[in-house]
Amino acid sequence: MSLPPGSTIGIIGGGQLGRMSAMAAARLGYRVHIFTPEANSPASQVAAATTMADYTDHAALTAFAAAVDVVTFEFENIPAASLQILTNLKPVHPSAEILAISQDRLVEKDFLNKAGAPTAPYAAVETDADLAAAIEKLGLPAVLKTTRLGYDGKGQAMLRTTEDTAAAFAALSPKPLVLEGFVNFACEISVIIARSADGSIASFDPVENRHKHHILDLTLAPAPLPLGLLAEATKLGRLIAQALNLVGLLAVEMFVTADGALLINEIAPRPHNSGHWTMDACPASQFEMHIRAVAGLPLPPATRHADAVMKNLVGPDDMADWPLILATPGLIAHHYGKAEARLGRKMGHVNRLFPKGSLPGEFGIEAALKYK
Ligand code: AMP
């Protein structure tokens, strides 16, 4: 069943992903109601209504559910009990089951491998003895991660030698942890998939992602890789969306190994930073696809009318250049409305388009993003 215009879409989370989803929803005639603990959040600045309350405030969640027609979310760390309250009262897309899988790296990896989507080798680590056994099994180097609440490289440590292990184990919390074999990757890519309740799927072209200080810096669309590999990445993304019985949007991050194999790093059942290029290079962006999928609207094909490079604007340095960015022809600027450009905070992004099929090489990309 599709939601008529004038209906209200509830979004849990007030960040930039909620903001851009809300803007897409407004264009389709929907009202958006944001639930966030943050005052003046990026999303509530562009939404019809906001509930400002903690994610554990059950009375506020109940009232929020009563005020909306469908619930979705823009981040993953929502307590299970809160999701249960919402699920009892209104349709929640993607489902609480999918969110539970994506909230826990160990559950996620078990799910992916069972579904036929391979990951790096891994082992659960709760104790010192588990860690020793995991290192015995996977070898070093390896990456030790918290199973929950990690993002942008937080909650993880690289283990190069056995001397690194005790301090890393002690420092990482919350426990339990997971040890992953180190992937000697050639590059990192992602695929974004939308899926409706009727099982129809739209998948954006796979893109390459480059990080700086563990934060996404650049996305290249499409990923400059052989077509066969891109098709394989899309196939894996679709497989995962189907195995999850997804209704909504899903980002799948993958490693391309040195010998051209694909390993899934992680999944996120929401709009994703690596999909921001779609706002300017596709007729329907990832945010519109997200809203369409949760509102039960038809999904248009996720076609790309241009090649694109997306660059994140991270605080504080990139924002000092905002006036220059606005004055540079060809840069399509997006600002998230955050007041404070704190170190490492994602403040906005720019997209630059190229005629389809003519994404430039390394030097061309650098030149195309120059504004100083
Ligand atoms: P994550 O928080 O799992 O997305 O990891 C953040 C970044 O750390 C990834 O984008 C990779 O660049 C790197 N990384 C994570 N896991 C591994 C691994 N098993 N092997 C090599 N690099 C990794």
Describe this structure in words.
With 372 residues, this protein is of the alpha+beta class. Helices cover 31% and strands 28% of the residues. It has 13 helices and 17 strands. Strands 9, 10, 11, 12, 13, 14, 15, 16 and 17 form a 9-stranded antiparallel beta sheet that branches. A 4-stranded parallel beta sheet has the order 3-2-1-4, with helices on both faces. The protein has a 4-stranded antiparallel beta sheet with strand order 5-8-6-7, with helices on both faces. α1 packs across α10 (286-295) and α2 (58-67) runs parallel beside α3. The chain is globular and about 60 Å long. The structure holds adenosine monophosphate (AMP). Adenosine monophosphate is lined by residues 120, 143, 150, 153, 156, 180, 182-183, 188, 211, 214, 265-266.
Produce the secondary structure layout.
Layout: E1 8-12, H1 16-27, E2 31-36, E3 49-52, H2 58-67, E4 70-73, H3 80-89, H4 96-102, H5 105-115, E5 122-125, H6 128-138, E6 142-146, E7 156-159, H7 165-171, E8 177-181, E9 185-195, E10 201-203, E11 207-212, E12 215-221, H8 227-244, E13 248-257, E14 262-268, H9 278-281, H10 286-295, E15 306-314, H11 317-320, H12 322-326, E16 332-335, E17 346-355, H13 362-368
Parallel strand pairs: 1-2, 1-4, 2-3
Antiparallel strand pairs: 5-8, 6-7, 6-8, 9-10, 9-11, 9-13, 11-12, 12-15, 13-14, 15-17, 16-17
Helix pairs in contact: 1-10, 2-3
The structure holds adenosine monophosphate.
CATH superfamily of the largest domain: ATP-grasp fold, B domain
Q: Could you say which overall geometry the principal axes of the C-alpha atoms support? A: globular
Question: How many domain modules?
Answer: 3
Head-to-tail CA distance between termini: 50 Å
Strand content: 25-35%
What does the largest sheet look like? 9 strands, antiparallel
